[in-house]
Amino acid sequence: MITAKERSRLNLFLNLCLDYAASFIEVGGSTSRLERKISELGSVYNLDVQIFSTPSAVILSLQDTDGESITSMRRVQEDQINLSKLKDLNTLINQAIEKEISAKEAKRLLDEINDSKPIYPISVLYLSAFLVGFFSSFSKFGNFKYASFAGAFSLFITGVISPFFHKFNFTRIYIIFFSLTLTTIGIGLLSHFYNFPIEQVLIGAVILLLPGFRITNAVSELAEHNFTSGTVKMAKAIIILIALGASSVIAQEILELMLGSELSMNISEGAKLPFIKQLISIFILITCFSITCYIPVRSIAIAAFAGISGWSAFYFLSLSSGVYISSFIASFIIGFISLSFSRFFKVPSQIYSVPGIISLVPGLFAFILLYRSSSKFAESNSSTPALVSLLVASLVFGLISARVPFQIHQNSEPVDD
Fold it and tell me: Which pTM was predicted?
């Protein structure tokens, strides 16, 4: 018969693990890393922990040495990437595993992390959102004026549209749909009256809406045989892409009704900027995107180094090789550098790889896929979906393949991401 004291101990540990798991998933952590860490923590306290986690719920079962068990479930709120909190949560569980802090102290620190304010002022986040939009367009097309428009619309989405719909508790899918619809209509109207290319502004404006992180995270989960979590995350990424595609086509038809004429929204060819100008643009893009993901200040330099290294490899390899092998090698380099520094600093590699991979913009290719495969666009090509899917796969599997050297070194032990 379990004593009241033992029951209290199990409940404390159970609530700690469930609260931690929900917080970890909500800020963008991977379920594979979460399950390993929770299992390690259970072993430290002589508890057999069975955990099953998905992006929407966590089920946890504890059993002590006397065979007494307790099981509970916790719902997970919609995820919002916050890599600063992810780092703090990772540090917290490592301290608990090393018994530097007790379970009770860990619970108190977890509450402090969850209640903490964003590490960057709102003004810095808004400036970063503008610069992300600006340099996403400028690095590809090289037009200062149109890139400024792109930055302005990126700021409009971040500072006006998203907060408005968040206020009324809209889910991320609805926010993305309405954000892109309103933005496309606004850009289309300005393009009609001031005669500028829509796509050069639109691509920069919606860069923060793209599901590049979710795609790479989903494939990573599937590669680790976390099929339930990986499938759910992939489904969410696909739904976001569908929302982007649907909103763009609907917005175009609304514009045609308003203007009484057909509107072209084809993707333009990129400009040939000098290498140094592109390098600086990509560096600023990664830095500002890091801030929008709430990456700790001290980690930004490493994330920028990983991203610049991968982008430079892509730039030079693409001069003599195909885009697929160039993308694969570039993302492999980003993944390898991220994993190397994550081992050294004992933090999740996502802190470095998420902003680093933005230099290759995996979500942007999927965004173009939806645009070009639509019958409403003159440059539509039946082979585009397959080609762009392969390009996205090259980026994703390059990032995942970076684990191989570490897994060999660890004698087939799983590699935390």
Answer: 0.88
